Amino acid sequence: MSWNTSDIPDQSGRRVVVTGANSGIGLEATRELARAGAYVVMACRSVARGEDAADDVRRTVPGADLDVRELDLADLDSVRAFAEGVEGEIDVLVNNAGVMAIPRSETADGFETQFGVNHLGHFALTGLLLDRVTDRVVTVSSRAHEGGEMDFDDLHGERDYARWEAYGQSKLSNLLFAYELDRRLDAAGSDVESLACHPGWAATELQSGAATNGAMELVMRAANAVVAQSAADGALPTLYAATAPEAEGGDYIGPGGLFDMRGAPEKQRSSARSRDRDAARRLWEYSEEATGVAFDLPEPEATA
Ligand SMILES: NC(=O)c1ccc[n+]([C@@H]2O[C@H](COP(=O)([O-])OP(=O)(O)OC[C@H]3O[C@@H](n4cnc5c(N)ncnc54)[C@H](OP(=O)(O)O)[C@@H]3O)[C@@H](O)[C@H]2O)c1
């Protein structure tokens, strides 16, 4: 039997933060976490869209324990304000929000937006919340990481910007970060685990953000209708990573069916570049400097 939402353990008493909880995978993950009894902080850049999404969850999960909070990952002031506003312990932080293949723009802090939102915003958020996280951090990457490369000389695409390459770099950064965080937590003797996952291909709003014109949007929507799995199925790897007792730090969870694009979640192997420890350390150091958020964790021991 393949893993599905009926396998989610009772989440009563658990507190979860989900970024980008108003749409797509974040919304469906929120719905199932709430159904299993968790209190979910829906971290959304628009509180109005977040409240609409919370109403949608409550229609299917009456009594869902939800709290919509503002979080704009494209603005470090917003990330800090959000982190200060979250009270108490957090069992699970789900770094889910993302943008894909958009034309070049910059965040409030001057970061290229895909790198800034998908990686640096989540890096800062995790660093600011980590001393309150008790169980695990889940970071949502993508199979697009496989084509991604770290351009440490031009991380923000100032000299040369290609929107798909920038997306690949940001999703590779998600994995380098998730694995490095897990190593540093281990080195600190912490019980907190850091895991990564990817949804395969799920029909969400993500693809429309990548369309540069109406015709491309139509193609994306048609491809979504024919090839993609539902957002609810796309949320399964995230739900497995966030709740399954057998999921462990350093795991990479993805759908095991057709080209790893759809199907039930399983443990998978990410690219060799995503497991490059030198790149992970370099990205970590850069991210601490760029965001001004330092983690109170030791460097992992070097392996032979
Ligand atoms: N769908 C797929 O096939 C697929 C494949 C591989 C990986 N992924 C990954 O899955 C994750 C979720 O994407 P999705 O498919 O569910 O897309 P989606 O429906 O577009 O949802 C993305 C979410 O991120 C939020 N977001 C965007 N910019 C933000 C910012 N600056 N601050 C805070 N939140 C922000 C969006 O908020 P708004 O609604 O306000 O824009 C939305 O809630 C992403 O990390 C994506 O890279 C998806």
From TrEMBL:
Residue ranges crossing the lipid bilayer per the database entry: none
Gene Ontology MF terms in the entry: oxidoreductase activity
Q: Which Pfam families does the record associate with it? A: adh_short
In what ranges is there compositional bias, type Basic and acidic residues?
263-280
The UniProt keyword set, sorted, is:
Oxidoreductase
Spell out the Gene3D superfamilies in the cross-references: NAD(P)-binding Rossmann-like Domain
Q: Coiled-coil region(s) at which residues?
A: none
Instruction: From the UniProt entry, list the residue stretches annotated as the region Disordered.
Output: 253-280
The answer on whether this UniProt entry bears the keyword Cell cycle reads: no
Q: What is this protein called?
A: Oxidoreductase
